[in-house]
Amino acid sequence: GAVVSQHPSRVICKSGTSVKIECRSLDFQATTMFWYRQFPKKSLMLMATSNEGSKATYEQGVEKDKFLINHASLTLSTLTVTSAHPEDSSFYICSARPRRSSGNTIYFGEGSWLTVV
Amino acid sequence: AQSVTQLDSHVSVSEGTPVLLRCNYSSSYSPSLFWYVQHPNKGLQLLLKYTSAATLVKGINGFEAEFKKSETSFHLTKPSAHMSDAAEYFCVVTRNSGGYQKVTFGTGTKLQVIP
User: Fold this and answer.
1) Is A43's CB within 8 Å of B103's CB?
2) How many A-B residue pairs are in contact by the CB < 8 A criterion?
């Protein structure tokens, strides 16, 4: 099946620094990629939707200047958490929709654990 | 507008007994429906999907789900639970909207399997 790779799987950064998380579709081209955040004991929260070559669409309440999303190619999207704070510590997951997707299937990465100290 | 309701936040079954995880949806359009499983500290894995073909969908690991339009339901079942099935399960509905894809997650159901 389609594979989505996220890197890094775990990252620890200091408060005030920025950290980048990559999401790659390994064996398909993804016209649309999604970024989610999962709070403890909560469901996934969609942060933003990115389409290749255009600006990301952010969900209400998500700071676009803090969570920078870039979808530079059909196989790569990045999420950069700028000026990270401890409250940004969370599990971030990306998903990708293949260019030729039957029935809107989306595939998820393994997720990235971010800890801000 | 679309929404997904997972009726149970926790389900506990004994090993070897049937599993039923309930999901109801609402959508103004013909949706696609999915079940994903998330094991502890892992990402999401696709279990099965409904995309307007057969209403009874078979997935991996012995899971299946039936799309019932009249009941707006897409419940996930498995005849016999295994210890390795203990995880969190998410029901998801998607549809295309203006060339973009709208994805809505349920709040998840945590499945506990008792030996």
Assistant:
1) no
2) 59
Q: Give the tens place of pLDDT for each residue, A102-116.
A: 556 778 887 888 999
pLDDT at A102: 56
B56 burial level (CB within 10 Å; 0-12, 13-18, 19+): exposed
Provide the pLDDT for residue B101: 60
Q: What is the tens place of the pLDDT at every residue in A53-75?
A: 788 989 889 999 999 999 888 89
| Closest partner CB to A104 (pick from B41, B101, B106) | B101
pLDDT of the residue at B63: 97
